[in-house]
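Take a minute with the sequence and fold tokens given here and flag any structure token that looks odd. Thanks in advance.
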Amino acid sequence: MPDSHLIVLAIGGNSLIRDEAHRTVADQWALTRETCHHVAHIIEAGHKVVITHGNGPQVGFILRRSELARRELHEVPLDSCDADTQGAIGYMIQQSLANEFRHRGMNRLAVTVVTQVEVAFDSPAFTHPSKPVGSFMDEATARDRAARNGWAIAEEIGHGWRRVVPSPEPLGIIELDAIRHLVEDGFVVTAVGGGGIPVTRDAAGDLKGVEAVIDKDLASSLLARLLGADLLVISTNVQKVCLNFGKPEQRALDRVTVDEAKRYLAEGQFGAGSMAPKIQGIIRFLESGGRRAIVTCPPDLEDAVAGNAGTAFVTP
């Protein structure tokens, strides 16, 4: 690819946690440094990069701490959890990149924008909560918390009961102009963390945070479209997108057209809470003028951008 292409790079929240045995803040720092080492290669090659990230596990940790301390302290609202994790993960990314830039003799600066993402106050998602958050509970505890806190709850067979919250469509990015100006001025920006802090407007037009979760891949796709990015890269914990994932006939995909992606999605090839939103976001990006999209893992980022790794999604 030529120099100075604009890339929106989405880093999955789970790709910052290697496994169940490595979930501490120190573990997340180590994996963030490793990921940013690969990101810095892309920036060093001349590309402009805007980073987004997931925050599902990290929000879960905050909610669990809040639950454990609820007899002594107030519980933390979900929009505040989103803001907290945007700051914490953004801090890890910008410090890791700053060190990479210094080691490479690059005169670049990384910044984080705590980002609000607007959703519709009357979105159907608010009457059909679907996104599990927080800890697993037994049924009696879950029903008690639901009655006292007004929660919606759902059972995950084999695991227990959890709170479920709305996951509305992202419609607009409040800080878009700030992000755009920072990118134009040469900053490496981290934004729309965790899909952004979900906000709605009241009758007077004022913003207000809501108890919801925005899918980070759909929000990353929206950011890429609004910025006019050339390339959307989704970094996750698999090297390539696969058909029949986890089955004996599993097959990795190297190149997928938009029409093929739509067909695989309709066939149910991609998990609703994992790969499907990534593919949906990619389709929206390409159909809005994006040149190429990639799904890959952090170690393969440089090769994937160069066209030599990952699964590439293209228009016909």
